[in-house]
Specification:
Strand content: 25-35%
CATH topology: Deoxyribonuclease I, Chain A
Order of helices and strands: EHHEEEEHEEHHEHEEEEEE
Distance between the termini: 10 Å
CATH class: Alpha Beta
Shape: globular
Largest sheet: 6 strands, mixed
Oligomer: single chain
Radius of gyration: 18 Å
């Protein structure tokens, strides 16, 4: 393991598709120490013999249990975790494959895939979508409580994943046009605030203060080519670990998904104190 541990998060928009589009090559080139994946949309038994990380990685999965080809998260790790825990103890979220945690000493690295919500305008014609926005906000509340519980127990938490929310106006290309769009609704952004207030830091903003940096682009109308995107994928790092983070950046040049990878480097001593 190098002096800096590299932790990558990436919504791959289908793990099988990602492998066909070069995921293994990406792992071999970038050599992340921990790779958190979201929206894997597959169970391990649905992966063929070519769909696995390089041999030095241990692969852990939390697929959706209630719907085939939907949601799901995974963690690929070059380090041997002390424990791997699926879910946050709330079945209505856990059966959708939303959270997977790997513990390394006192550090918990958590792969998170937050639900999508729906805008008020959508909900007028489809009332059932109101419930889905409420579902998303409740997920945020339960996740915030989960983080507080872990930290109160002495764990240092790194949440990695797709939170389906652009936190500030800097985090999407067209904030004014999206004020009534789910992903940038005031109540979603307040829920994100509460998550940070639980003791976490959007560490990318410690290194990059300007706009124009995104992790997701619509697949319509050449949005990616014109960089009309949203930053909805984050590393939310325990405030006590932030001084150990030496880099945070995005990889918009990496294709294979409508999202791009987000990367942080953190002192390896966080995981191996003797280093």
């Amino acid at each position: 393991m190098s002096r800096a541990a590299k932790i990558v998060t990436w919504n791959v928009n289908g793990l099988r598709s990602a492998y066909r589009n070069g995921l293994r090559h990406y792992i071999e080139r970038e050599q992340p120490d921990i790779l958190c994946l979201q929206e894997i949309r597959a169970t391990p038994d649905q992966l063929d013999a070519t769909m696995h990380p390089p041999a030095e990685y241990r692969a852990f999965y939390a697929p959706a249990r209630n719907r085939s080809g939907y949601s799901g998260v995974a963690i690929f790790s070059r380090l041997e975790p002390d424990a791997v825990v699926e879910g946050i103890g709330v079945d209505r979220f856990d059966r959708e494959g939303r959270v997977l945690r790997a513990d390394y000493g006192s550090i918990s690295v958590v792969s998170v895939y937050a639900p999508k919500g729906y805008s008020p305008d959508d909900a007028r014609s489809q009332p059932e979508k109101v419930e889905r926005l409420a579902f998303k906000l409740e997920f945020y509340r339960k996740l915030t409580r989960y983080v507080r519980t872990l930290r109160a127990g002495g764990r240092r938490v790194i949440l990695c994943g797709d939170f389906n929310t652009a936190h500030t106006e800097l985090d999407l290309a067209r904030p004014r046009e999206n004020e009534r769009t789910s992903g940038f609704l005031p109540e979603e952004r307040r829920a994100f605030d509460k998550l940070l207030e639980a003791g976490l830091v959007d560490v990318f903003r410690r290194f990059v203060s300007d706009g124009g940096h995104y992790t997701w682009w619509s697949q319509r109308r050449g949005a990616r080519e014109r960089n009309i995107g949203w930053r909805i994928d984050y590393h939310l790092v325990d405030a006590e670990l932030v001084p150990l983070v030496t880099a945070a950046y995005l990889q918009p040049e990496v294709r294979g998904s409508d999202h791009c990878p987000a990367v942080i480097a953190i002192a390896a001593s966080a995981f191996i104190p003797s280093m």
